[in-house]
Amino acid sequence: xxxxxxxxxxxxxxxxxxxxxxxxxxxxxxxxxxxxxxxxxxxxxxxxxxxxxxxxxxxxxxxxxxxxxxxxxxxxxxxxxxxxxxxxxxxxxxxxxxxxxxxxxxxxxxxxxxxxxxxxxxxxxxxxxxxxxxxxxxxxxxxxxxxxxxxxxxxxxxxxxxxxxxxxxxxxxxxxxxxxxxxxxxxxxxxxxxxxxxxxxxxxxxxxxxxxxxxxxxxxxxxxxxxxxxxxxxxxxxxxxxxxxxxxxxxxxxxxxxxxxxxxxxxxxxxxxxxxxxxxxxxxxxxxxxxxxxxxxxxxxxxxxxxxxxxxxxxxxxxxxxxxxxxxxxxxxxxxxxxxxxxxxxxxxxxxxxxxxxxxxxxxxxxxxxxxxxxxxxxxxxxxxxxxxxxxxxxxxxxxxxxxxxxxxxxxxxxxxxxxxxxxxxxxxxxxxxxxxxxxxxxxxxxxxxxxxxxxxxxxxxxxxxxxxxxxxxxxxxxxxxxxxxxxxxxxxxxxxxxxxxxxxxxxxxxxxxxxxxxxxxxxxxxxxxxxxxxxxxxxxxxxxxxxxxxxxxxxxxxxxxxxxxxxxxxxxxxxxxxxxxxxxxxxxxxxxxxxxxxxxxxxxxxxxxxxxxxxxxxxxxxxxxxxxxxxxxxxxxxxxxxxxxxxxxxxxxxxxxxxxxxxxxxxxxxxxxxxxxxxxxxxxxxxxxxxxxxxxxxxxxxxxxxxxxxxxxxxxxxxxxxxxxxxxxxxxxxxxxxxxxxxxxxxxxxxxxxxxxxxxxxxxxxxxxxxxxxx
Length: 776
Prior knowledge:
The chain has helices at residues 2-24, 32-38, 62-75, 114-126, 138-195, 217-230, 258-268, 278-293, 297-312, 314-317, 324-331, 333-350, 406-439, 443-473, 482-487, 503-512, 536-542, 548-553, 594-627, 650-674, 676-701, 708-750; strands at residues 53-61, 81-86, 91-93, 100-102, 104-112, 130-132, 198-200, 205-207, 352-353, 356-357, 366-370, 373-378, 385-387, 526-528, 575-576, 583-585, 590-592. With 776 residues, it is α+β, with helices and mostly antiparallel strands. Helix 8 (278-293) packs antiparallel against helix 22 and helix 14 (443-473) runs antiparallel to helix 19 (594-627). Mean pLDDT is 82; it is low at 24-51, 371-376, 480-493 and 633-644.
């Protein structure tokens, strides 16, 4: 009806506008002979010299009319007159799949000759124009105009009635659409389930096999029996438990709190049946990793407040269509809440809020030191500081935020924290793999995969974490008593008075020079030479001349075959002139650690031995287990002779285990280094927050404007800019960056130590799934 009514509208427009062109272009009456001589010869187009003037009219899209005019001009070699005028009202375009209102233009072409008319007609049709008949006489024009108006009135009446009927039908349908859709979806689910059943022709019954949660088995039996009784069926359903070797689907019960975290895990892969579910650990470990990178008390509380606001909208928004973006954010409302809490917690440990150092647990424990002792003042502007008592009770002493070596201190601290957290989390993943091996009763993987992995990873990276804690817990300082300090002598009291070893150098030397002397030891320190330590004679008595560093320092005492007087023992204490106090000779001291050398060598050997065991043991055991099976078991229900439908292959076993070994060994190094992103993101967040605070907010607070009103305006503007930029950069962009990096650590570095993620999600037959998208 709409198409027909639109065609009548276009015909009416052609009649009305064409009449105006005919009037404008009217010429004095000419005889046929005069008209023939006034026109150019059209013989080349197949026409005759005596052809009469013809008209072609129609409507076309406005954007195509210029191209149509050019093509008509070229095709007729200028022997056609093209007239056009834009239609004021939009008309219906029916050329596409969906009709739509577009702007159209009326056109009229004057030409001579039937062949030329066919050519112009084809060109216009090619450009999508709609052609309409135009009468040649005024009488025919009036008759056609009357007929078109009459048919338009009839069409408008029919269109109005049909629209009213359609509107009524759709209104009644809209009221019943919901129940109808539900019934249709339910019937589709029923028939889909019946199509999966096997029909027994002899007994005329359906046989269905499926999975049901163990806790819900009795409820299933009761429901089926009750349904049969309610329908008055004589035959009751027969339900049998079948022992199957197929892997069941994985059913992970969730609630509003755990569903978001489980969704993060399921995005990586559905857990294999009965394997350890990382979603349990994701609820705490993921927010903790995020908090380390996003650590700021103020920013964390803001983000936690946003998560709490989303949680408060549960009753209002649950089950509603919120759109893709808001639905995703709302689904992770508890993730946002915990991420914010852990960010605030780590910010509390950093003693930092909005990049401002905060004394949450009192002022700094460091005080300035003067000649008579502690001055009782903070040491921010003094050259020397000492602890006035116990260390700061929680977190970092706020004085570190205003020291010159702030970056160096926080770099070292956060880098070590990243390594410690990473190694502990990956170690947890390795120990969780033990639970999987025990659950699947795979003894060979317990003995020849788990134990070598623990040995290798713990012997190298676990030892690295242990050295970090030992370095933190050791007092390396050498407090000087002032009389000795003025004389250049170390004091006899205080720490061990040794330079702290570089852990990076320690780890490199552990691999590159495992048998070399450790002259900057971490533990088990034995020093020779210097005040209060044995000299070269003590080296010989202790039997330590086997250590090259000590043997080179004590050639005489260690009995080196040298000429008398060429070499002397070098170990000695510093000597001072009693009268002048001038230093006569400096001390010469060497420290070694036989215990550290022994432990590192044994750990390194254990790690190297674990690699070939991890690589070769399991494939050799599998080859031995399959060596006695010369023939495949033809029992169709026996799946033990095949693995995922493929026969056992020794080459595949070695390749699979080789890939696992290479991934674990190299991954142990790369994954540990990957956790340094915690340090990088935490430092970036802290430095950006401090930059915005100092350069924007600080500029407003320290503007130096004396007028109070102008100073207030400047402060307000600076605060507004600081709040907006902090919201966009720190609360949005940095938030998303920390989220993605924490997700990477959760998926790759943690889950690849134990998680297969190749399970099949349990999709139960339930009408409650209708409308949630799960029925597909």
